[in-house]
Amino acid sequence: MSGIRAVVTDIEGTTTPLAFVHEVLFPYARQRLSAFLKDREEDPEVAAALADARALGGVPDATLEETISLLHAWMDEDRKAGPLKLLQGLIWRQGYEEGVLKGEVYEDAAARLRDWRQRGLRLFVYSSGSEDAQKLIFGFSDKGDLAVLFDGFFDTRIGAKVETRSYRAIAEAAGLPAHAMLFLSDHAGEIAAARGAGMQTVRIDRALPAGSWAEESAGPVAGSFDAVEAHIFFRV
User: Fold this and answer.
1) Domain residue ranges of the chain, discontinuous segments joined by +
2) What's the average pLDDT block by block, 10 residues per block, for the chain (236 residues)?
C-alpha cells in the first residue's frame, strides 16, 4: 500500500465500541423519545421529521402517540429510517450539550487520527449514522474534540455502505482518485465494496490483539489503528 492521501473511517466497531452505540446511545434516545416529541412537537425541524415518518410509514393522519409507536417499532427493527435518525440525533445533541453523553472513541483511533491529520492526510467519516450524529460522537468525545480533524462526514444519503458506487461517490466528493484513499471498517461487506471502487482497505477486528496484522484474500486485517500505522507507509 502506498500513495495514500486520505483515510475514510467507519465508526461502529472501528473507532468506537459497538456497545457504546447499542447499549448507550440507542437506549438513551428510546427512553427520551416520547417526552422529547411531546415537548417539541411544534418545532419546525421536529414537525417535519414527524410528517416524514408518517408518510414513510403510510400513516399520514397518525396521531402523535401513534407516530411514537411507529418510531419505537422502527427502533426495535433497527431500521435506518431518515426521520428516525434525525430525531435520535436531536435527542443525542441535547444529551451531549448537557454533558450527559460523551462519545466513546478508542485511544489508538484518537491518537492515530490526530497524528495522520498532523502529517497532512485528509480524514473523512462514512457511517450509517447521520452526519449530525457522527459529528456529535467525535465533537463531544471522551478524547476531546475530534470532529475538527475531519474534512467531511458521509452517511447513507450518499449510498448504502455495501454498494461500490457509494465509495466512488465519496472519492468524487473528496476530489481524490479512489486508489489514494484508505478505508477502515470492521465490516467485510463494506470492505469489499470499497475495494471494488478502487480504494485501499484494511478491515479492523477489535477481537484481535492490538498489534495484529494479517494478509487475507479479501485484504489486510488489523487489530487496531496502531497496527495500521505500523504496516502502512503513508506518502503524503
Assistant:
1) 6-16+103-231, 21-97
2) 89 96 95 97 96 97 97 93 92 95 98 96 94 95 98 95 98 97 97 97 96 91 95 61
According to CATH, the superfamily of the domain at 6-16+103-231 is HAD superfamily/HAD-like (3.40.50.1000)
**Phi and psi dihedrals of 213, rounded to 5?**
-150, 130
C-beta separation of 223 from 213 below 8 A: yes
170, 154 Cβ separation under 8 angstroms = yes
Reference 19, options 107, 104, 146, 117; nearest CA is 104
pTM of the model: 0.91
CA distance linking residue 226 with residue 229, whole number of Å: 5
CB atoms near residue 232 (< 10 Å): 17
